[in-house]
Design goal:
It holds the Pfam family cNMP_binding. 28% of the residues lie in helices and 39% in strands. It is of the alpha+beta class. Helix 6 crosses helix 7.
Length: 201
């Protein structure tokens, strides 16, 4: 859902703990602005709860209506994308150097047990399986990961060798967060890094 705030303001809060209902990472969207641009443009479900900070007049635009509007007037998509990008901080606009997108075919290894690649993987779609081999050569499945899962956090942050082999069960696309990017965040954006560590934990 996309919202245009005609008057008033909206508060967006990300739930970090569904069990406790804790609301964190609040930010406000003021009158004359759109709220929900990323979710409406990407087609993904929003992770934020949106509430009115004060008495407000808001025009909601559903996904179905947005699709109809974009078909009749395709030019609105790049315009909304520009509005979204212009709202990002300079830090966010320049993080692409530290991210990479990779595809893995069925049966292809993402990393081997004992390797030191030190990357964190975010699964966009597909499935990855973690397989550990003991000293006797016996293999066992440690875990499986699907869309939106983070893989390799502990080993990357602590710079340990991989404890198991990560293999694609089917065609899988991932975002790769490199260790150099994490070092950059820690050096130039310590507050951002602490928030990332809190979310990943």
């Amino acid at each position: 859902m996309l919202y245009y705030i005609h008057r008033g303001s909206l508060c967006c809060a990300l739930k970090s703990d569904a069990s406790s209902g804790t609301r964190v990472n609040n930010f406000s969207v003021l009158s004359g602005k759109f709220c929900g641009l990323l979710s409406i443009l990407s087609g993904m479900h929003s992770q934020y709860e949106i509430t009115a900070s004060e008495d407000s007049v808001v025009f909601p635009i559903s996904s179905a209506l947005f699709r109809k509007l974009s078909k009749s007037c395709p030019a609105i998509i790049p315009r909304l994308a520009y509005l979204f990008l212009s709202s990002l901080s300079p830090f966010l606009k320049n993080i692409s150097f530290g991210l990479d997108w990779e595809n893995f075919e069925t049966g292809q290894n993402v990393h081997q047990q004992g390797s030191h690649d030190h990357n964190i993987y975010i699964i966009l779609h597909g499935r990855l399986r973690l397989i550990r081999e003991d000293n006797q050569g016996e293999k066992s499945v440690v875990g499986e990961f699907t869309r939106n899962d983070f893989v390799g956090i502990e080993e990357t942050l602590e710079k340990k060798a991989r404890m198991a082999t990560l293999t694609a069960v089917r065609f899988t696309e991932v975002v790769v967060i490199t260790i150099s990017f994490l070092d950059f965040i820690q050096k130039y954006g310590s507050k951002v890094m602490s928030k990332i560590a809190k979310v990943l934990s």
